[in-house]
Amino acid sequence: MIRFLFLVCTLFISLSYAQEKREYSVYFETAEYTLTPDEESSFNDFVDKLDFKKITHISIYGYTDDVGSTGYNKKLSVDRATYIQEYLIEKGIDKKNFNTVKGKGEILLKSAGEIETDIERGFNRKVLIEVSLKRTEEEINKRSITYKFEQDLKVGDVITLENLLFKEGYAKIKPHSYTHLRALAKALKERKDIFFEIRGHVCCTRFGRDAIDRKTKKRNLSTARAKYVYDFLAKNKISKHRMRYKGMRRKFPLGKGEQFDRRVEIVIVNFAQKRNVREKKK
Asked: What mean pLDDT do residues 230-259 have?
């Protein structure tokens, strides 16, 4: 069963939380600036979940791989960005919401191997869409700094840490998420009976693959994100015997936008009372 942490707002929330930013990337075939049916279908799922009335502004950035001349790639990146803008306008988004529509040209390769190079080029042929949405007062208050676990948790329940957001390509969380991570540690100290698994997730890869950690250059980003939370909790005096961590790669996208797929979840695996009962039977 999937659950969310019950949140209680206890401190003043800064105006920076009055907006929510959602990110999404669409990918293109070589030398193309229109979407394949599969990409269009996935993109439509993202767009259909947006509340157009809450959009404050949209930024669109087009990119290409490094094949072809610099001039050609620059134009192609512009064509891709413009195509996505026109696509969203046809969907019903007001043209005045677009404050940035740019072609950024080519992205240089970082990989050396032939297979990795081909995969990386595929991810470089993209358009990044950043959508800023205004929040209602109720939604702003959900940016809480106090967590409380529900009393009726069961083994197997999945708790999504919605306010724990990661930097793209890194295992480090965004600055404003530290408040929530500290609050999580406090809540876990109060519920010492909970034994749990920390699961890390990534966005933007294909075929359920893991992503590359830009700091270490290893393809284990989902595991690194889970371990980051594990290490933080351990430093904040949560017993290592109560927790373990695991990388889930990109097996379970939420469909709400890239920043929400760069996430960590907690899965309840046991309770202290049940463990004691089993030990007595032995």
From this structure: 90
Cα(252)–Cα(114) distance, integer angstroms: 28
Residue 180, φ and ψ in degrees, nearest 5? -70, -35
How high is the mean pLDDT of the chain? 82
- Is 93 strand, coil or helix? coil
Rounded Cα distance between 213 and 219, Å, is 6
Hey, what CATH class is 145-281 in? alpha beta
pLDDT digits (tens, 9 = 90+) for 49-63: 899 999 999 999 999
Q: Domain segments of the chain: what residues?
A: 19-134, 145-281
What span, in angstroms and rounded, lies between the C-alpha atoms of 222 and 112?
A: 22
Cα angle for residues 262, 265, 269 (degrees, 5° grid) = 155
Q: Which CATH number fits domain 19-134: 3.40.190.10, 3.50.30.10, 3.30.1330.60, 2.60.40.640?
A: 3.30.1330.60
d(CA 216, CA 88): 37
Same fold, 19-134 and 145-281: yes
- Provide the 8-state DSSP code for 269: E
Question: Among 110, 117, 112, 122, which Cα is nearest to 63's?
Answer: 122
